[in-house]
């Protein structure tokens, strides 16, 4: 069985085409959202699906108290190693569908890196929102980062989407991406297969990940927030802008939910 790209914390972000400066820009934007939509100061942050928590490390460096959760022990270990000098950043290994934490309430939660659409089942989506809601103060904000999803033609068989090359320190990545068949009644927009050949100086490793993606638009998130009984959607911003209309969204959008 081939390993996952997520077993390589220092490499996987390049496979997903993260650009330099992207995460610092997101952290600045999040703080602006909190200032805009919260009357009280925002001090305690829950970082969901955090990986090695690059957002959390920057926020902790700015004086916020941050708790990260992720299901991957490899990512959690990398996060703890990189944050060893930060006493105000802690990690828990948890599934994102349903979780509890031995923590007092948070002022805000974030789910970044466009990972939210992997919550495919309705039950998982609602239990996730309820789990987050129980950990937030009333009036607390949940900011969800979601990729813009253009229509993808359904394919009758595994089909190549694209090939590309990326580089990270000490490794070259040859990347092949595929679309896979989906039943007509499925809530998925795509089943994204990511194959990466990692060429290290002394070895080569091939990773493979199957990533289900549910098509989430602002109306979908608004409905799920209401159905959870925990949240009300108060804003949807695109491309880290407070002024760009959704019709002009190029890459991604951010849903802002308020704990009721």
Radius of gyration from the alpha-carbon trace, in angstroms: 18 Å
Shape: globular
**Approximate helicity band:** 10-25%
Low-confidence stretches: none
Strand arrangement across the biggest beta sheet:
3-2-1-4-5-11-10
Write the element-wise H/E pattern from the N-terminal end onward: HHEHEHEEHEEEEEHEE
Give a written overview of the molecule:
The protein is α/β, with parallel strands linked by helices and 260 residues long. It has two domains: 5-149 and 215-259, 3-Layer(aba) Sandwich (Rossmann fold), CATH 3.40.50.150; 159-213, S-adenosyl-L-methionine-dependent methyltransferases, CATH 2.20.130. It is built from six helices and eleven strands. It has helices at residues 12-15, 22-37, 54-61, 73-82, 122-135, 218-228, and strands at 44-48, 65-70, 89-93, 106-111, 136-147, 159-168, 171-179, 188-199, 204-214, 231-238, 252-259. A seven-stranded mixed sheet has the order 3-2-1-4-5-11-10, with helices on both faces. Strands 6-7-8-9 form a four-stranded antiparallel sheet, with no helix packed on it. Helix 3 links the parallel strand 1 (44-48) and strand 2. The radius of gyration is 18 Å and the shape is globular. The termini are far apart.
């Amino acid at each position: 069985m081939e390993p996952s790209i997520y077993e390589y914390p220092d490499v996987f972000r390049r496979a997903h085409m993260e650009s330099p400066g992207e995460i610092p820009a997101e952290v600045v934007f999040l703080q602006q959202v909190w200032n805009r939509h919260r009357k009280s100061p925002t001090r305690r942050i829950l970082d969901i699906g955090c990986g090695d928590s690059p957002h959390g490390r920057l926020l902790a460096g700015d004086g916020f108290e941050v708790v990260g959760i992720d299901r991957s022990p490899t990512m959690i270990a990398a996060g703890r190693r990189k944050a060893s000098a930060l006493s105000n950043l802690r990690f828990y290994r948890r599934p994102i569908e349903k979780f509890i934490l031995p923590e007092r309430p948070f002022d805000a939660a974030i789910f970044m890196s466009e990972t939210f659409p992997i919550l495919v089942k309705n039950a998982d989506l609602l239990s996730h929102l309820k789990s987050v809601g129980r950990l937030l103060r009333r009036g607390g904000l949940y900011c969800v980062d979601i990729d813009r999803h253009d229509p993808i033609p359904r394919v009758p068989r595994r089909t190549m989407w694209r090939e590309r090359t990326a580089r990270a320190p000490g490794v070259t990545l040859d990347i092949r991406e595929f679309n896979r068949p989906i039943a007509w009644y499925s809530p998925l927009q795509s089943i994204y297969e990511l194959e990466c050949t990692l060429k290290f100086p002394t070895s080569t490793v091939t990773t493979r990940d199957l990533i289900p993606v549910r098509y989430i638009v602002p109306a979908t998130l608004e409905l799920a927030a209401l159905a959870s009984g925990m949240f009300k959607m108060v804003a949807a911003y695109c491309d880290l802008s407070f002024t760009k209309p959704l019709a002009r969204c190029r890459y991604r959008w951010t849903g802002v939910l308020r704990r009721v």
